[in-house]
Write a structure and sequence with these properties.
Elements lengths: L1 H23 L25 H9 L42
Length: 100
């Protein structure tokens, strides 16, 4: 029941925002705002293959450096409110971020 209420509320907010944009916004050509030419996700769950799909569509090459990640060592975050030893080992390691 709660999920249905949240879903209905989300839909109501989405429709409200769309109508507010239509009422208060103005149309401009993409040539005047090239940043509007961006990749849009398809409806539904995006999943982990979204970057591969975008790369194929845009004829781009994906690469991932060996040290890719937010930070190389979660130990630097150790403090009174965070203990990296208690984190999920698939995410946190004392040496590097591993790929799942």
């Amino acid at each position: 029941m709660r999920a249905a209420i949240y879903s209905a509320l989300g839909l109501l907010l989405e429709v409200s925002i769309e109508w507010l944009v239509r009422l208060t916004g103005r149309r401009i050509p993409k040539s005047e705002a090239p940043w509007l030419n961006c990749v849009n996700g398809k409806p539904g769950v995006i999943g982990t293959g979204v970057y591969q799909r975008i790369a194929e569509e845009e004829r781009l090459k994906l690469s991932q450096p060996p040290d890719a990640g937010l930070i190389p060592d979660f130990e630097v975050l150790r403090g009174p409110s965070f203990n990296p030893d208690q984190g999920d080992p698939r995410i946190l390691t004392s040496t590097s971020i591993r790929h799942l």
